[in-house]
Amino acid sequence: MKKLTALLLALVMVLALAACGGNNDGNKNNTPSEPAKTDAPAEPAKTDEPAAPAEPTVEPITLRIGYMPNYASLWGVLSAIEQGCFAEEGITIELTEFGDGPSEIAAMEGGSIDLAYIGKGAHRLCITGSATIFAPSSVHTVDKVVCMPDSGIKTVEDLKGKTIAYNAGSSSESTFNNALTVGGLTTDDVTAMSLSIDNIVPAAVSGSIDAAVCWNPYSGQILQQVEGSYEIEFADGSTNISSWICLPDYAAANHDILVRFSRALYKGMDWGSQEANYDTVAQYCADRTKTSLESNQLQVGDAHWFNIADLKAGLADGTIKGYYEGMQNDMVQGGNIEASDAKDDVGAFVLFDVMEEALK
After folding, report:
1. Closest Cα to residue 281, out of 307, 259, 263?
2. Which pLDDT tens digit goes with each residue over 48-102?
């Protein structure tokens, strides 16, 4: 038994030595028990899941925009530019200054601009078919007349017998007519002086008028340059809304562009309508118009500046549509348009579908 055990032990040792020798014979076809470590990254495991889709891209576009040199015209579009809202939509904005809304519409017809901001007066050209509204900007509830120091004007009734400067075809004319109506007067009761908007301030400085109906910054310039001049306020329940417009043919061919522009504009308006940002927006406007920060800060209270919540709620409950209906009624009653020009549905000249799509 001892011999048998010794033989078995010897056999085991021989086999073990043979195995060790086989693992070190340099045979390159043998696979080591652990993989060699390398600096190369491991290949990702293959899956059957599809690759993630690429981010959608938008076609870069440049839009030529008409504006007037005041806070009401610039507050929304400059906020959207400075806050990067148009850049998000791939839109480059080129701004061109105009004195009034009719001049902007003429420029669109001539092909030099694509879109524009207008005050109340130029809305009559939208009603009569020259332009189409695609976005609201703000609404004003109180109108003002700038009076000269020795005019003796304290109320709109006191306009009787006075020389009043206004700008025909713009919101100046509609405000002038509203002031006369509230005062129980007609144009026969005053000396109405129709001037270009650029000539109203010089007329006030020269002392050739008793009062002027104009908007900022022109009214502010009169207050600054004519010592003792002042403003009187009146409210007649009329709707003084401001909007963004384009030509009807442009709207028909560029629905998606209007939605993209409006979406960016509304984001800017939402930011700019916050009271905490008023001073910053006023500085944007001052830089653009080369006027003082203080004169732009004075314009902050001129209107209610729409935010996104206002627009969504106003479209849902009909408030926004009501503003345009009220404005059209004012135009008829004030003699700015013929009753036959008024539309049964203001949707004929207001693109509510663009507003709703941009606000989704």
Report:
1. 307
2. 555 555 555 789 999 999 999 999 999 999 999 999 999 999 999 999 999 999 9
Q: Which two tokens stand for residue 39?
A: 């600096």
Dihedral angle sign, alpha carbons of residues 95, 100, 105, 106? negative
Are 325 and 234 contacting, i.e. CB atoms less than 8 angstroms apart? Answer: no
Q: How far, in Å, CA of 117 to CA of 171, rounded? A: 12
Distance CA 275, CA 338 (A): 40
DSSP string, 180-240: HHHTT--GGGSEEEE--HHHHHHHHHHT--SEE---TTHHHHHHHHSTT-EEEEE--S--E
Enter the pTM of the model: 0.74
Model confidence over 182-208: pLDDT tens digits? Answer: 999 999 999 999 999 899 999 999 999
CA distance 170 to 296: 21
Residue for token pair 């075809």: 169
